[in-house]
Backbone:
């Protein structure tokens, strides 16, 4: 991948939303892009697993965990599952765990922080709905581009940039 979010902003500023700088990089892949799939869950990662078990087709799973720092919604096992199933990346408005192991898994992963505490598995949550956090609206089917500078979202593919 050769794009930078700064270059995308310079060229497409009027068509982009820019996420507030809340997120840290945890996966090995620091630059990722793809069509958005959404999950909303609070301290329960059952739906996150369900989606990462499915073919990702280069998409980005955006997880609204309500900003909770109480428990992790993604760890090394789910990170590897996402990689193995073709997901480009995962953005978690919440925490991850297994930071060192995640840094060696070839998937993009941005989250707020880490915690060793795992989530519950009660099957609660919603999927493929509109999410709002970090000053951005994440719509299923929109496109997310991420690198070490941050996250930008476009309602439409940015053409040649999408295939980076």
Residues:
């Amino acid at each position: 991948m050769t794009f930078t979010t700064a270059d995308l902003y310079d060229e497409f500023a009027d068509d982009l939303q820019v996420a507030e700088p809340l997120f840290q990089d945890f996966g090995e892949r620091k630059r990722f892009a793809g069509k958005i799939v959404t999950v909303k869950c609070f301290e329960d990662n059952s739906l996150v697993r369900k989606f990462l078990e499915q073919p990702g087709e280069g998409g980005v799973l955006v997880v609204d965990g309500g900003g909770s720092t109480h428990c992790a919604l993604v760890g090394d096992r789910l990170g590897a599952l996402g990689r193995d199933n073709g997901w480009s990346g995962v953005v978690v408005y919440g925490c991850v765990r297994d930071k060192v192991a995640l840094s060696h898994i070839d998937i993009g992963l941005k989250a707020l922080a880490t915690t060793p505490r795992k989530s519950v598995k009660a099957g609660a949550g919603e999927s493929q709905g509109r999410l709002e956090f970090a000053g951005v609206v994440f719509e299923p089917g929109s496109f997310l581009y991420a690198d070490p500078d941050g996250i930008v979202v476009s309602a439409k593919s940015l053409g040649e940039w999408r295939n980076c």
Remarks:
- The first strand starts at residue 16 and ends at 18.
- The domain at 5-155 is CATH 3.50.30.40 (Glucose Oxidase; domain 1).
